[in-house]
Amino acid sequence: MSRVRVVTDSTVRFSTPGFLARHPVAVAPLTLRCHLEAWEESPEDEIDSARLLFERCRGFPLAEPPSIDRMAEAYGQLAVETDQIVSIHASAYINPTVHNAQAASQKFLGRCAIHVVDSQTLSSGLGLFSTKSFASCAAWSRACTWWSSSPT
Q1: Do the beta carbons of residue 62 and residue 101 sit within 8 Å?
Q2: Which strands make up the sheet holding 113-118, listed edge to edge?
Q3: Which of 1, 29, 92, 117 lies 20 to 30 Å (CA to CA) from residue 103?
Q4: Distance between CA 86 and CA 38 in Å, rounded?
């Protein structure tokens, strides 16, 4: 049995500095768009890095979720090394990323179990949820590895 992998989106903010550098959590980026100018968000970015986009934009920038194809690309990269993915995203009431993730997961039916979760939160709340999910998945993967390798 392979390791369970975790995917989240770039609205996530982790309370532990450097969390992504130490743990294999995949992040699907949202895009901030103002007319023809676009900026791809990262959970490690500070809001100041998008300030120029906000200052130059007449009106408000639009936050676009990762597309179905972008989510499928992320799942496809992880499916090479696992057959189980937990995909945790910002609240579907705020952002349609969950819907795109569900649609993308359908492309992997029968090859990879992808469980899409609506966190019903975002930012630090999504970070806490993702952190705990990663820890649970890591513990489950270790238990499954031990179980499958223990003598009968």
Answers
A1: no
A2: 25-28, 4-9, 84-89, 113-118
A3: 1
A4: 28
CATH code, 136: 3.40.50.10170
Instruction: Return phi, psi of residue 120, to 5°.
Output: 55, 30
pLDDT at 71: 96
CB atoms within 10 A of CB 21: 7
CA distance 41 to 47: 10
Would you say the pTM of this structure is higher than 0.85? no
pLDDT value, residue 21: 80
The residue from 49, 64, 79 where one domain ends is 64
Residue 73, pLDDT score = 95
Instruction: Give yes or no for a contact between 25 and 57, defined as CB atoms under 8 angstroms apart.
Output: no
The CA angle 117-8-65, to the nearest 5 degrees, is: 90
Copy the structure tokens of residue 4.
């369970």
How much is the CA Rg of the chain, to the nearest whole Å? 17
